[in-house]
Amino acid sequence: MELNLKRPIIFFDLETTGIDTVRDRIVEISMIKVSPDGSKEVKTRRLNPEMPIPKESTAIHGITDADVADCPTFKNIARSLADFIGNSDLAGFNSNRFDIPLLVEEFFRAGIDIDISKRHMVDVQNIFHKMEQRTLAAAYKFYCDREIENAHSAEADVTATYEVLLGQLERYPQLGKDVKELAEFCAMNRNVDLAGRVVLNEKDEPVFNFGKHKGQPVAKVFEHEPSYYSWIMNGDFPVHTKNIITEIRLKSLGK
């Protein structure tokens, strides 16, 4: 069973220096671009993260500082990567919570604003967790009846992720094949920003999802405590989160 595509969708996986979407960097990215006509294009690049790769991370993906010493930085390839992505929807395994936020942060650091507001984001892990509660390796074994060879390399993992989704479509026909419907099914929270620091409440109001003002409307918090905005802007928050919060603040001020 194939996906019902109205525009391209890119399955991607990142190998990184760590799991902090603000501080850590990409050391390898692999993408499978699936077009509506069924054709596929694969791109895999190793990148110099411009910071040491912790040994704990190397133990997982096997990539060392020496391996990427002569590789381009993300900024070097950011424009060509953005052109390759184009208007594609995005998919991955745990991508809504990690890969997409980190990728967007890298683009911001490179001076490129990737608009994700109109893209559908399909997180294969969310489908798997809602249906079976497993990991990528178990998902591949469960849906594809095969073992992942060279696991924790970006290309092996992203290929497995794409094949797992196709297996999920076969197993759960009620999911349908439309990317928009899959993205809606994958949504675990009604996030306003990628990191989930701001979510929509039952009245569709943006509310804080962290800290002392958790559950309170963002606009009302800024009305009563304007300094909270400055605290966030000076804090260690993702750029995308800061941009979203700034948009809400300006809208509340009528600007």
Summarize the structure.
This protein has helices at residues 55-61, 65-68, 74-85, 95-109, 124-131, 136-144, 154-171, 179-186, 218-224, 227-233, 239-252, and strands at 9-16, 26-34, 40-46, 89-92, 121-123, 198-200, 206-208. The protein has 255 residues and is α/β, with parallel strands linked by helices. The chain starts with 8 loop residues before the first strand and ends with a helix.
Considering the chains and any ligands shown, give keywords for the structure.
single chain; 255 residues; alpha/beta; Nucleotidyltransferase, domain 5; five-stranded mixed beta sheet; two-stranded antiparallel sheet; 15% strand
Would you write up a description of this structure?
The protein is an alpha/beta fold and 255 residues long. It has 2 domains: 9-186, Ribonuclease H-like superfamily/Ribonuclease H (Nucleotidyltransferase, domain 5, 2-Layer Sandwich), CATH 3.30.420; 198-252, no CATH class. It has 11 helices and 7 strands. It has helices at 55-61, 65-68, 74-85, 95-109, 124-131, 136-144, 154-171, 179-186, 218-224, 227-233, 239-252, and strands at 9-16, 26-34, 40-46, 89-92, 121-123, 198-200, 206-208. The chain has a 5-stranded mixed β-sheet with strand order 3-2-1-4-5. Strand 2 and strand 3 (40-46) form a beta hairpin. Helix 6 packs across helix 7. The radius of gyration is 19 Å and the shape is globular.
